[in-house]
């Protein structure tokens, strides 16, 4: 039985647990879950479950996984451990190596919900462009049986969306890997997208395994100049209909979004997604707000993510400094996590989340007392804060020294 089905009949213990963590009325959370406006990931495994959606704190996800150029399971395990330390969820995006072994190992060593993108494995093992594209359902079933918590599926690209893409003069046509595979197989074989065509089959697999569906945005913009164009909007309309179908079968579902979006279009993008999907939880990659800062896209995405989360985005996927440049290493993973976490907490302060505000009040009081040890242990990244700390003999920092305003005000105001 799915969580949505359980919630309609009873009050599952997991709802009480998440409500307590989120400082929200359990009855309200239960109602949001029944309506599909909030979901819970990680309820069936021995991990720290999370709630996503209306009225809940902003969560972050970290992507890891091999590529055709980099296959080192030990390094991916290291990255997975770092990701699960700082992020609320982890996605295995592996495309090369022993994909079953990698996925199972990541599930084993992480303590947070784990998601996957089955189309990568399906394409690697069967070439979905040249061979039977419907074999993707076998791979989805395999991932579900392995107890992944959620999967990304690019079901929103149909023939109508494809026609819109062909008419649009985009700078970058498709930048989603799953979206590109989907478009290629549709054109090559002159067929409808199997995930759209047989969405009912996908729903059945998800329902049988209580698997959450993350509806991928294959038409997401790869440059700020393509943001919110016709293919993007068309896909949102399709995704909205798919959300409705999933909810009707009590399957938890959330919706992915861009990508690259200029600051002046972020609010419109978030609100359009919420409107078209009847307030489904939404999951954004950033969004990145300018295209010309490679090497610093953890910053461009954190700025966009903070704005998006303030406007209603529920789940932020991190972006690392390696984005658009190279394969991320463990340092990139940590920096991406910290940047996304800052964005999420900044938005939660703006949304009045009392426990996040309380954290900021606590560190500010410790800072006022020059209590360095306790202060830095409250930091988002206490390791870096303690490493960079440099104080003088009187406990002031080396920047201000004897001109420390806190020390001066102790004399005249305290």
Question: Main attributes?
Answer:
414 residues, alpha/beta, TIM Barrel, 2 domains, 8-stranded parallel β-barrel, two-stranded antiparallel sheet, 51% helix
Could you walk me through the main structural features you see in this protein, from its secondary elements to its overall organization?
By secondary structure, this protein is of the alpha/beta class. The chain has two domains: 58-350, TIM Barrel; 355-412, no CATH class. The protein contains 19 helices and ten strands. The mean pLDDT is 96.
Q: CATH superfamily of the largest domain, please? A: Radical SAM ThiC family, central domain
Q: Count of helical segments?
A: 19
In which order are the strands of the major sheet placed? 3-4-5-6-7-8-9-10
Average predicted local confidence, pLDDT: 96
What share of the residues does DSSP label as strand, in percent? 5-15%
Total domains, how many?
A: 2
Architecture of the largest domain, according to CATH?
Alpha-Beta Barrel
Q: How many β-strand runs?
A: 10
Q: Which percent bin holds the helix content?
A: 40-55%
Brief sketch in words of this structure:
With 414 residues, this protein is α/β, with parallel strands linked by helices.
Topology of this structure?
Blueprint (H helix, E strand, L loop, with lengths): L2 H7 L3 H10 L3 H10 L2 E4 L8 E4 L5 E6 L8 H14 L2 E4 L6 H11 L4 E3 L1 H9 L9 H10 L4 E4 L5 H9 L9 H13 L4 H4 L1 H11 L2 E4 L14 H19 L4 E5 L5 H14 L5 E4 L11 H14 L4 E3 L12 H21 L3 H15 L3 H6 L4 H7 L16 H8 L2
Parallel strand pairs: 3-4, 3-10, 4-5, 5-6, 6-7, 7-8, 8-9, 9-10
Antiparallel strand pairs: 1-2
Helix pairs in contact: 1-3, 4-5, 4-15, 6-7, 7-11, 8-12, 12-13, 14-15
